[in-house]
Amino acid sequence: MQEYRVVEGGVLLFSPAHFEPVHIFDCGQCFRWHQKPGGGYSGIALGRFLEVEKTDEGILFKGTDRADFESIWIDYFDLGRDYGRIKDELAGDDVLARAIEYGYGIRILKQDAWETLISFIISANNRIPRIKKTVESLCQCYGRRLEHEGRVYYDFPSPDALASVSEQQARDCGCGFRAAYIIDTAKRVADGRIDLQLIAKLSTVDARKALMELRGVGPKVADCIMLYSMQKYDAFPVDVWVKKVMECFYKDQMGDNAGLKRITQYAGERFGNLAGFAQQYLFYYARDFLGRRFGKELGDNYVNMYKK
DNA sequence: TGGCAGGGTCATA
DNA sequence: TATGACCCTGCC
C-alpha cells in the first residue's frame, strides 16, 4: 500500500508509480468520471462525489476525509494491489511490454456490480460519448439526488427505481433498443431472481453463464461486469479494439480468422489469471495510441511498421 | 449537410 | 453457426 496523508481539502497519495488518472478513467472501464476543464477528474461512484487530481506531490483525492478514503476509496482504486508485480509478469510478452509502457498508470477499479451491469448493457453497439450521456440521463431522472458542498449530483438509480420505469421513459433517456433489456434486468434484480452478490461468488465460468441469462448481456458485457466489478481478473472482454490488436499481434499463434472464442481461449492460455489486466493495457494501447494513429488500418499498417 | 458506423446482442434460418 | 436489424448521435 502506498503512503498517503490527510491534507487540506482531501487526501494526498505519495509517489504513486502506478496511478495515472487519464489512464484509469479513459481505459474504458467507467462512464461517470469526467475530465474537468482545469485538469483533473470528477466523478460519482458508490454514492459519493470525488475529485482526483495530479499534483507535483502526488495524487490528490479532493473532497474526502480519512474515514471515507480508508473505508471506500482505497478499495475502489484497489490501492492495496502491487501493479509493479503484475506489470513485471506481463512484460515478458513483447506486445504487453509496449502496451504497459504506454498505459503505465492503469488500474482496474472495483466498481458497483449493479451500475456496471446496466452501464455495459448500454454500451452494446454504442459509442462512448453517447454511453456516458445515457448513463448520466438515467441518473438525473431516476437516481437519488445528493449534495456535496452546495453542488447537486445524482447517484446511479437503484434496481427498484429502474424496475418501475417504462420502456418509453428509458428510451427518452437515450437507451434506444436497449431500453427493454435494462428494464427486464432491473426487474429481475429488484425482485431477487438475480442476486449479483451471489453471482460474484461463483467461478468465472459459472458467473459468466449466470450473467448471460440476462437480456442484453452477451459474452463481452458479461466479461466486463466480472472484471470491473467482481474481481474476476481472469476475465478477458473482447471488443472491437482488443479483437483488432489480438488479430494483429498474435496472428501466428492463434491462426487465421480467429473468432471470438479462439481469442478468449488464447488470452486465457497466454495471460492466465492476469488476463483482465492484460486486456486493459491492450485496449488502451489499441484504441488510444494505435487507433488515433492508424484508425481502421491499425492491423496491417502497424505490423508492417513494427517489422521494419 | 448527409450518411456512416459504433465498447454487441438478439432473433431468425 | 452465420447474417441482419437495432436506437441514435458524434464525427467525417
Describe the structure.
The model has no long low-confidence stretch (mean pLDDT 93). The chain has helices at 21-25, 66-76, 83-90, 94-102, 113-122, 128-142, 159-163, 167-172, 179-190, 196-201, 204-211, 219-229, 240-249, 251-254, 260-271, 275-294, 298-307, and strands spanning 4-7, 10-14, 33-35, 41-45, 48-54, 58-62, 145-148, 151-154. The protein is built from 17 helices and 8 strands. With 308 residues, the protein is α+β, with helices and mostly antiparallel strands. Helix content is 53%, strand content 12%. The strands form 2 sheets. The chain has a 6-stranded antiparallel sheet with strand order 1-2-6-5-4-3. Strands 7-8 form a two-stranded antiparallel sheet. It binds a DNA duplex (13 and 12 nucleotides) through helix 5, helix 6, helix 12 and helix 13.
Strand order of the largest sheet: 1-2-6-5-4-3
The secondary-structure element order is EEHEEEEHHHHHEEHHHHHHHHHHH
The proportion of strand residues reads 5-15%
State the helical fraction: 40-55%
